[in-house]
Design goal:
Elements lengths: L48 H13 L4 H17 L8 H39 L1
Helix pairs in contact: 1-2, 1-3, 2-3
């Protein structure tokens, strides 16, 4: 029966005291592959997902001309991920960047249609009301 007061007697010092600690192992030499879990897998192309989300946010909030660029970069990033050329961990970031670009592009188109509508309306009022 174990409980308070029934602990084993003190053995003295920490466990393994005086024994050599295990080392970190040999580092791979030049040209050798890293061991599993060290640095993760490398992909042939660097991810552009963060660029897509930054341009998408900037295009949505400040400079709308950046929105279509974010859309294109986000779409290309997703295509690269699907082809195995880029890190799949960045898929959500690329999707958010692409969708921000799509929304920003839609707002640009709506704004241009609004401007064209008022130009046509003002021309119509000017020709009939003069």
């Amino acid at each position: 029966m174990s409980g308070y007061g029934n602990e084993p007697p003190y053995q003295g010092g920490p466990q393994g005291y005086g024994q050599q600690q295990p080392g970190y192992g040999q580092q791979p030499g030049y040209g050798q592959q890293q061991p599993y879990g060290y640095g993760g897998p490398r992909y042939p192309e660097e991810s552009q997902a963060v660029l897509a989300i930054v341009l998408g946010a900037l295009g949505l909030l400040f400079c709308q001309i950046l929105a279509p660029i974010a859309w294109v970069i986000g779409r290309r990033e997703l295509q690269g991920i699907d082809a195995g050329q880029r890190d799949p961990n960045n898929r959500t970031t690329a999707q958010v960047g692409m969708w921000l670009g799509i929304i920003g592009t839609a707002l640009i188109i709506l704004g241009l249609l609004f401007i064209v509508f008022f130009i046509v309306l003002s021309i119509g009022v000017a020709t009939t009301g003069a």
